[in-house]
Specification:
heterodimer; A: alpha+beta; Alpha-Beta Plaits; 10 helices; 4 strands; B: alpha/beta; Rossmann fold; 7 helices; 10 strands; 32% helix
Chain lengths: 292, 226
């Protein structure tokens, strides 16, 4: 009986104030979509970081013109003995030229003008710990025959910095929208409480418990929050299908694909976030409104 | 049953207290009128007894429970032992007489089965048998107040508080409501009534406590309006 009463009150409440309810759901959905996107991006960046760190190399470019076989052998011996190094490959001019041709395949005249002799030879080194570059750099910089030492990790970091700021941006928008959603929740719930002020007054008078008075209003907000979360989940699924697996397909080699399991994980996560936020805000919003 | 000990209530921003060092004791089964001019502090008394407000100073005991410093989560349960009737009836306009009374039961967790048994009984008691399914706007003022009394009494409270229950009613109807309150009092329920209807007070000849300027100026058994 009590459950039936509460549920019917929720349905009636949501319907009576339908424009506000829709506004609340949409704001909630936008906010939770951005929150979900941000969490997905976070998971993705972590995953990509693992994948990329697996692959990053330190490249030691030898001087293009005047390096000698002697210097090269000396460096090779050092690298073999070095505890920082996990493995390394030597890339000679022809291999460098092949790679050059692939990188600049869209600029054939550049490729035509470049001779293998003008490209530097290099060692491609995999460090045991990708973070130990500075120690490595310290050791080898300035050794005879070495032109420059490049850490790919630094390049990769730049990509992650960009992704990181995209994530931060999404989070900031999510928070701003979230605040708007909260204000809407408070307002909606107070309008609902006001429209039922007579009932509330009688309930307080005859000694209905606080939760019984507040539950229908709070559940209204929670229902809106959960529906908003569901909408947000649908948006994320569509984004996965049409944007990441659709329009951004060519980038699949750079951006590791977002796994479905992560997308599906967002449904319970966003629903919980939506429900929690609405209920807490709803409860406290009412506490100040419906004084005992 | 009810005891106020040196109770002072000063509203925020008020220059003088609404009740000033008031002490009064009411026994179980008594019928007490609180009288006095507007603004004398009568309604403040009712609000204190219902724990709608807290006293600034002093101790209030109702039904053996210290009300003044009661934790807010205990208030609902406390109020179930008190019935309350107001000048403006406070009925829900979109519910019938039956539903208004049943609502009071349902929101404190009673089942519909209980309501079906108890509500017709109490409506019969207040003299509304046959009018259960009328809406408040289809009832006269006196009948609406009877619904309100039924709602206050359906839970068999130990105390019935009435804040000018006849304020909106003509003299004849007022007397009918008073007979009803008297009948309820005879079942052992303590009745506390705030009024400035001198006719009624003079006719009933019950204990009269007169308040003026926040102080008790008269407390007399079987008193008159004065």
């Amino acid at each position: 009986m009590r459950l039936k009463y509460v549920l019917s009150e929720v349905a009636v409440g949501l319907w009576r104030n339908v424009t506000m309810t829709i506004a609340m759901m949409i704001t909630m959905a936008v906010s939770l979509t951005l929150l979900g996107a941000s969490v997905l991006l976070y998971l993705q960046v972590n995953h990509m970081r693992e994948v990329y760190y697996e692959q990053v190399e330190v490249t030691v470019f030898l001087k293009a013109q005047e390096n000698t076989t002697q210097e090269r052998t000396a460096i090779e011996a050092d690298l073999t003995a070095d505890p920082l190094v996990q493995s390394f490959d030597f890339e000679d001019r022809n291999e460098a030229y092949e790679r050059f041709k692939i990188i600049f395949e869209n600029a054939p005249e550049l490729v035509a003008q470049t001779k293998p002799e003008s490209l530097p030879e290099s060692f491609r080194i995999k460090l045991k710990d990708p973070n130990s570059f500075s120690a490595f750099n310290e050791k080898y910089r300035g050794k005879p025959g070495i032109e420059t030492i490049i850490d790919q990790k630094e390049l990769v970091e730049k990509v992650f910095t960009v992704l990181g700021s995209v994530q931060t941006l999404a989070l900031i928008i999510a928070v701003v929208q979230g605040v708007a959603a909260l204000l809407l929740v408070i307002n909606t719930i107070q309008v609902a409480a006001y429209s039922k002020r007579r009932e509330v007054a009688v309930m307080k008078l005859v000694g209905a418990s606080n939760w019984f008075i507040q539950a229908p209003f709070v559940l209204e907000a929670v229902a809106a929050g959960v529906i908003g979360a569901f909408l947000a989940y649908i948006v994320l699924v569509l984004a996965k299908i049409y944007v990441f697996d659709g329009a951004l397909e060519p980038l699949a080699a750079v951006m590791t694909p977002i796994p479905w399991s992560n997308v599906h994980l967002m449904l319970p996560l966003l629903a919980a976030a939506g429900a929690l936020i609405s209920s807490v805000v709803g409860w406290f919003g009412l506490r100040f409104y419906i004084r005992v | 049953m009810i005891a106020l000990e040196h109770v002072t209530k000063t509203y925020p921003k008020a220059s003088r207290p609404s009740l000033n060092d008031v002490s009064v004791a009411i026994e179980k089964g008594e019928f007490v009128f609180f009288i006095g001019p507007s603004g004398s502090g009568k309604s403040t008394m009712i609000k204190l007894l219902l724990r709608e407000i807290q006293p600034t100073k002093g101790k209030i005991v109702v039904n053996n429970r210290e009300v003044g410093n009661m934790r807010s989560w205990r208030i609902p349960n406390f109020r179930r032992s008190i019935g309350c009737v107001f000048q403006d009836f406070r009925l829900l306009p979109n519910r019938t007489a039956y539903e208004n009374v049943a609502f009071a039961l349902e929101v404190i967790g009673k089942t519909q089965a209980v309501a079906r048994r108890v509500v017709p009984e109490v409506l019969e008691l207040v003299g509304l048998g046959g009018k259960e399914h009328r809406y408040p706007n289809e009832l006269s003022g006196g009948e609406q107040q009877r619904v309100a009394v039924a709602r206050a009494f359906v839970n068999r409270p130990l105390i019935l508080l009435a804040d000018e229950p006849t304020g909106n009613l003509d003299p004849d109807t007022s007397i009918e409501i008073m007979r009803l309150l008297d009948r309820i009092n005879r079942t052992g329920t303590t009745v506390v009534m705030v009024t400035h209807d001198s006719n009624i007070v003079n006719q009933m000849r019950r204990r009269v406590v007169e308040i003026e300027g926040g102080k008790i100026v008269r407390d007399q058994p079987r008193g008159v309006y004065g």
